[in-house]
Amino acid sequence: MGSPWAAWDDMPPLVDPNVVSSQTPRSIPPPPNAAFMPSGPPPRTAPAGSQQYPWGTPWPQYPFTSPQDPYAAWRQPHDTTAYPQQSGPSPYIPRQPLRPETRSHDHSRRTDPQSSSRKRSNSFHIRFPWPSEGGDLSPLEIPSRMPDVQAFTPRALDMHTPSSSLSRSVSSNSSIPPGMYHERPQLWRHDFKFKSGFASMFRNKSTTMRPLNGVIDSAKLDLHPFLRYSKSRPLTIYDLRREPLTLMFRELERPPLANDMDHAVTRPPTQYMRIYHPRLAWYIDIRANGASYISLADFFQQLFAALNKPISKYDYYNNELDDEDRNILTHIYLNRCRSQEEKQEGVKRVDFLRGKIEWMGLVAGKNGMWRLKTA
């Protein structure tokens, strides 16, 4: 009996292993009229350069170290769009007085939004290379005649500075547009006084803040030497108007690196600090960013972000400030700006320091907070 496959012996083999053809296709050709879809962007959960684990390997133990350098911003500049921008604020840009026929006469009451939002990030942008090539600013010299600020840029309201909708009535012969003055902004510190001396004694304190709990009480924490106050020789050299990458530590003979900035700011470590300055109308809250403690990088990055916030017209035109106060802020703003781009960003909170911009350190303050000392 013959083989059952004898009927197929005359057919050629499907694959001849002894024949190598250069025309053999490397892939199966697509069918006629096939449509191809473009490849989409890589998934957000798998960024380029992230560590990959083969299938079947056990998960890494927690906590694990991220393959990315969390403080790479201390080594190389970033694009300006990488800096964490606050959502909603519109800068207040002082300008020269408008002519009487072009001034706004909006008599409607204005309301500052009550909502607030905050975005945090691990990086910040660098406008000037390390070290700063812009040079030091000229010392504060108040001219005999301050610029007369009487107009403001019509922009969206600053969502970070809500205040009451009530406004102060202004006489018709005033140089300020009617309805411009507002009540004291609600986010200002209750004990903040723009002026010092005899005139400031007539302001009443409406509320008293309760002391913070013992976990974050400044009196029970030991500061890192780089943050301690020194009247004559602070260990940190920093202009609070500039980016944190411009700071220097006296004990280092080089710019600070990522491992230098990873030290905890207090002992024992803390995850929250509240800072105030007599000349600032706002508190500065510092929080741990992705770790169990506040690092030096967290501290200086968030300090700069808080001082770099633009103010709103409610911070500029209110019952607490008079024309002389606004002229001083405008002069400080113009002295700080080194380019037209900076001027377009408007008056910022750091301008409320009024020339006291040199870092001197922190000291334990009232109610468990920290007081920022400057010169």
UniProtKB/TrEMBL annotation:
InterPro entries: DUF6699 (IPR046522)
Start and end residues of each DUF6699 domain: 238-368
Ranges of biased composition (kind: Low complexity): 163-175
Coiled coil: none
Region annotation Disordered: where it falls in the sequence: 1-139, 159-178
Pro residues bias locations: 27-45
Compositional bias annotation for Basic and acidic residues: 98-112
Pfam families reported in the protein's UniProt record: DUF6699 (PF20415)
Protein name: DUF6699 domain-containing protein
Protein's organism: Boletus reticuloceps
Classification lineage: Eukaryota, Fungi, Dikarya, Basidiomycota, Agaricomycotina
